[in-house]
Design goal:
Layout lengths: L1 H18 L2 H8 L3 E6 L2 E6 L2 H10 L1 H11 L5 E9 L8 E6 L57 H12 L9 E5 L5 H15 L5 E5 H13 L3 H9 L3 E5 L8 H16 L3 E6 L11 H7 L3 E5 L4 H14 L6 H10 L4 H18 L5 H16 L4 H12 L3 H5 L5 H17 L4 H6 L6 H17 L1 H12 L7
Parallel strand pairs: 2-3, 5-8, 5-9, 6-7, 7-8
Antiparallel strand pairs: 1-2, 3-4
Helix pairs in contact: 1-4, 5-6, 7-8, 11-12, 11-13, 13-14, 15-17, 17-19, 19-20
Bound molecules: adenosine-5'-diphosphate (ADP) and magnesium ion (MG).
The site of adenosine-5'-diphosphate has 17 residues, from helix 6 and helix 13.
Length: 479
């Protein structure tokens, strides 16, 4: 029996593995223990309630695919959530939960969709026949609300404009409302929140969220199927049109032309249009001027990188939503280490929660550090704080503790100042955060270090050479 269930689960794992990243696989699937298989139901033991919820929210379709292929369409899944692992005397305590989506509709095999938080593009909006009689799908994700969108200097204008638009869609001068900003700074969250808020307040309005990619694909299909009119007519009935990532329209002339017509029509009829883009309209190349000028009709607001306090608030909110508390020093460590991208910050928090529930350990600095390393390494290995400190300690042969400590000996002060200088030049860390990595020194100490090294580099060729060499480890020059 046990052999059977293990074999079954191993087959599932092979299928699952193909569709998700190794990191996610190791975090979420390796810890699962297959318990039994009977009555077509596979029971899996998961380490905690949080784990269960996360799997349910993010990996339902991938489970479904594996189960369909390995067990068949009638296959079901059940989780056994461990509350207490027990010991030799006491048996473990667990409770069973069925999956919410046991035998739901089939899924599309967009492999990248499985683990993604992004809106899923599954249904075809052309299914509509009669607008009045049909529940139209808005493609809004309920968890993206204003309530969960932490306000900070970085997003105040966009958030406020979004609120205004939500209260009076189509009636403010913010039409279109264009939100732009870098990756992972909350564009999708904010424009979805606007959609959700409008749906809440004006249930009769037809709100539609669509990614530019999906819009383009639908358009291309419509051309292929000779159904451009259906396509356009569909969009003309929308009351609030939310289009995400319009930078992907660039270079697509025909799609732009159709979008231009839809835009004009909706705008003239007082319908609200909300757009997002990863760059400011003036930087959108490959976009027709007449379309660009439309984008500028309303309000353009950017989302910037969140400052320290906002990052702290974001982390706190995420943890609080899951009923988890962590020490202020771990909070500060996280907020000081991930600066540029809320999505990355969130990824680390989620991984941390998983690790903590898995090992039943407290979330402490050590755990935070290891988790951070395993995630951030993938992308910006060279520029992580730890790597910069590594290079400096190795070069000057000081240990990390001394480098970060208070010892005033010249042979320690110099490497410390070089490290501060490098952090200042190579990362976007504010001075305060740099000081944090050196035993909580204040920003004036960091300024002093940066000035000393800059001056030394100007007056002393050997210092300049040393610093340049260190910079070269990161494949960069010092300015
Ligand atoms: P973008 O579309 O700009 O790439 P997203 O909207 O997908 O970014 O945001 C990435 C993640 O960060 C999302 O999970 C989102 O909920 C979260 N996030 C971004 N900004 C905030 C914020 N101000 N408050 C709370 N969560 C945020
Ligand atoms: Mg987005």
């Amino acid at each position: 029996m046990q052999k059977g269930v293990n074999e079954l689960w191993n087959k599932c794992l092979m299928i699952i593995r193909e569709d998700i990243s190794e990191h996610n696989f190791n975090t979420w699937f390796t810890p699962i223990v297959p318990l039994k298989f009977s009555n077509n139901t596979l029971t899996l033991e998961v380490p905690s309630q949080f784990f269960y919820e996360w799997l349910e929210e993010n990996y339902v379709s991938i489970f479904r695919k594996a189960i369909d292929l390995v067990i068949g369409k009638n296959g079901m899944l059940e989780y056994s959530v461990v509350i207490d692992k027990g010991d030799r005397k006491n048996p473990p305590i667990a409770f069973n939960l069925p999956t919410n989506h046991s035998n739901q509709n089939s899924y599309n095999s967009h492999s990248d969709k499985y683990s993604s938080n992004q809106p899923q593009a599954a249904k075809n909006p052309f299914q509509f026949k009669d607008l009045d009689s049909l529940e139209l799908d808005s493609y809004l994700i309920p968890k993206y609300t204003f309530d969960k969108f932490i306000e900070g200097d970085c997003n105040r204008l966009g958030r406020a404009a979004g609120m205004a638009v939500s209260n009076k869609p189509g009636l403010t001068s913010f039409n279109p409302l264009m939100i732009y900003g870098g990756v992972g700074l909350g564009k999708t969250h904010l424009i979805q929140a606007i959609g959700n808020q409008i749906k809440d307040q004006f249930p009769e309005k037809f709100v539609l969220y669509v990614s530019t990619e999906k819009f383009t694909n639908q358009f291309v299909n419509a051309i292929r199927n000779n159904s451009i009119e259906t396509f356009t007519n569909f969009y003309l009935q929308v009351d609030v049109l939310i289009i995400d990532d319009v930078q992907f329209l660039s270079g697509k002339e025909k799609t732009q032309e159709t979008f231009f017509n839809i835009f004009n029509h909706l705008h003239q009829s007082g319908k609200q249009i909300i757009l997002s883009s990863d760059r400011a309209p003036r930087d959108l190349a490959g976009m027709e001027d007449r379309l660009l000028s439309r984008f500028k009709w309303g309000l353009t607001a950017d989302l910037q990188q969140p400052d320290f306090e906002t990052r702290i608030a974001i982390i706190q909110k995420k943890l609080q939503d899951d009923g988890i508390q962590i020490n202020i020093d771990v909070l500060e460590y996280l907020a000081n280490s991930i600066q540029t991208n809320v999505r990355e910050l969130e990824g680390v928090i989620i991984s941390l929660m998983a690790q903590a529930s898995l090992t039943r350990k407290e979330i402490d600095i050590e755990l935070a550090k290891t988790t951070l390393k395993s995630i951030v390494n993938d992308q910006e290995k060279e520029l992580s704080v730890d790597n910069i400190l590594d290079v400096v300690t190795l070069h000057f042969d000081v240990d990390l503790q001394t480098l970060q400590g208070k010892c005033r000996k010249k042979e320690n002060v110099f490497p410390r100042q070089v490290a501060m200088y490098m952090l200042k030049e190579l990362t976007n860390l504010p001075l305060k955060s740099i000081g944090y990595h050196f035993g909580g020194r204040d920003h004036s100490t960091v300024i002093h270090a940066v000035q000393s090294i800059s001056e030394a580099m100007e007056t002393d060729k050997s210092v300049e050479k040393t610093v340049r060499n260190l910079f070269n480890r990161f494949n960069l020059s010092s300015n």
